Amino acid sequence: MKNLLVIGVGPHARRSHLPALAAGQAAGLVGTVRGVDILGAADAAVPYDADDGPRSVPVTLVEPFGSEERTLPDAVRRTLDELVDHQGIDAVVVSTEPAFHLAYTGWALERGLSVLLDKPLGVRTDASTDPAQAAGILTDADDLLARYEAARLRHPEIMVSVQSQRRYHPAFWRLRQLIAEVAEATDCPVTSVQSFHSDGQWRLPDELLDLDYHGYDRGYGKCAHSGYHFFDIIPWLLAAGERGGKVPDAVQVHAQVTRPADFLAQLGVEDHERLFDGFAARNLYSTQDLDTAAHGFGEVDAFISLAFRSAGRTLTLGSLNLVHNGFSQRGNLTPAAGLYKGNGRVRQETHIIQQGPFQALHFHSLQTLDEGVRTGDRHAPGGDRHVEVHVFRNNRLRPAWKAYTRLGHEALTTMSEGQVAVPTQQSSRRRAMGEFLEYVNGRRTREQMRSDLTTHRTAAALMAGAYQSMAARWTGASPEATLSLEPTLPDAPAPAPGTVVGTL
Predict the structure, then answer these.
(1) What is the per-residue pLDDT for 237?
(2) 147/149 Cα distance (integer angstroms)
(3) Domain that holds residue 403
């Protein structure tokens, strides 16, 4: 049983990490839990909803510091050191604003504490407008990897696991398995991938300045908010098809984005005055005020073109389209107190994967917030738990293959270490936390960890490339970025249905 420190107790931690740690307490994996946040961001006790009812976590408040700091200021370090010593802290969850991940994770590594690190690995302020800051994203990732390697020499058991929950999702396990099967039979890698994610975060014009959660004012946006999941899952899927030296060594990245000024051209102040009674009375800003204040803000939507290359030739073409300004179910002027879903956030996601002339895979998760009220089925399109995979195979070349198979919620549900693993994001996040807790309690080996930090450099490179492209375009330079892909430790293999893969 280990004592955990959660650094950053905002909406995401309250909805995901703290309930998962409470479940860990019930399972005998977690002792005490303490929180840390900056002054003004949280109270001394933060409430959250656990599986067994309302709870709260005590929070230690520290002085704010600038995101340009690569290490913690002395005063913050002393406060955390005292907390670790007095509370007997064994491991840390880092769930702060991403620009602060490096400093907090670096401190934990120096203390010999294992870390569950929220995505992304990190980001820099003004990454979408400053080419040096954009390039620094990968520099920081390499810095973190070097600190991790050094910490492992002093503390061989130390672990940094990245909370990238699609690696723990049964539908993505099945996609990797299907890709691997065809690659084994044909030696053909994934030749193209089209990925799309929209979370329908409708932010009204005045909220561009006044609403801090998942904002754009730090010079980054959608790609850092939730885009890392897809910068990670694309190469994670591609790796399942790598055979016979057909492994990319570089990637070319080209991004087109919209920013808050573009959003105001699509739906401006006057439009919102017509749409929402009371908006005109509430809003304090003119269009000119907003345009001036939001100059240099980060991306709202990003459409990104990818070319994975090997020895100068393209192995895989990709497109990654990331959308905040998409289908939403916000209908109220005032956002709900729980900002994680408070402005109508709805997840819709698709992946279309081609493996040459042999296989096409379509993943679709087309949800609403209606919990199946209108469809009568929470797992059908439009239900809040919809997910399905469509498999097409060239059965005229291989008669044993089926030309078409549909895998729905039931078919994608599998057994994992004696427990049912359902294909939802919430349960996948729980599996990620459960795996980490089992590791720090000595119940799992390093080789069994699915999201070790050492397997995330390619994802960091893709994210850095997207921001380098944005920043170059902003400054008038060529918007194409080319990045080297250094080898990483191999990922855990995709499990066959029913195999042991995780917990919860």
Answers:
(1) 98
(2) 5
(3) 165-484
Q: Are strands 313-323 and 192-198 parallel, antiparallel or unpaired?
A: parallel
The answer to whether the Cα torsion of 61, 221, 367, 373 is positive or negative is: positive
* pLDDT over 90 percentage in the chain: 85
> Which whole number is the average pLDDT over 427-434?
95
287: enclosing H helix or E strand: helix 287-293
Task: State the pLDDT at residue 233.
Answer: 98
Task: Examine residue 54 and say whether the peptide bond preceding it is cis (omega within 30 degrees of 0).
Answer: no
Q: 486-502 pLDDT, tens per residue?
A: 754 444 444 444 333 33
Q: Are residues 180 and 81 in the same domain?
A: no
Q: According to DSSP H, which parts of 130-251 are helical?
A: 131-154, 170-186, 207-210, 222-225, 228-238
- pTM (2 d.p.): 0.92
Host H or E run for residue 438: helix 425-440
> Residue 497 falls within a domain, yes or no?
no
Q: Domain of 152: which CATH number?
A: 3.40.50.720
Q: How far is CA 62 from CA 68, 134, 344, in A?
A: 17, 28, 32
Place of tokens 């299907």: 178
Q: What share of the chain is helix, strand, coil (3-state, %, to 5)?
A: 35, 25, 40
pLDDT at 338: 63
User: Is 128 in the same domain as 238?
Assistant: no
**CATH number of the domain within which 346 lies:** 3.30.360.10
* 67 φ/ψ angles, rounded to the nearest 5 degrees: -70, -10
* Whether 67 contacts 125, CB under 8 Å: yes
